[in-house]
Amino acid sequence: MSETGKKILISGGSRCNVLPSEVDLARDYFTSARPGAMKQAFATWSLDGAQRWLENLGLVMEIEESTGKYFPESGSAREVRDVILHGCLDRGVKVRYESSVVGLRRQCPGHTGGEDAVQC
């Protein structure tokens, strides 16, 4: 049976550690294959931006001081999955099951998606 967000549901022992409270790219996200890869990703999607996005979707989070990670206030990974899924569906995202992504291509600048943004 196909289900969206299976990885989210098992994340953090089913509590889902949503975000770290701080990011040190060199310490936390170094890869010898592409040392600058995470720097590029975080240049367009910051930790603060991710937190605001999740809060705007309605996810209430709290920081666990002992780990420095944000968890959903409810303690439920299912809530995290549901909030993200419904936020995406409300914005017109189409979920496809039993599909493989075979290609991605950049659209014109400022393009926010479209039927051919992901090729399955």
TrEMBL record:
It holds the Pfam family HI0933_like. It comes from the Eukaryota. Residues 2-107 form the RsdA/BaiN/AoA(So)-like Rossmann fold-like domain. InterPro entries: BaiN-like (IPR004792), FAD/NAD-bd_sf (IPR036188), RsdA/BaiN/AoA(So)_Rossmann (IPR057661). PANTHER family: OS12G0638800 PROTEIN (PTHR42887:SF2). This is RsdA/BaiN/AoA(So)-like Rossmann fold-like domain-containing protein. The lineage of its organism: Eukaryota, Viridiplantae, Prasinodermophyta, Prasinodermophyceae, Prasinodermales.
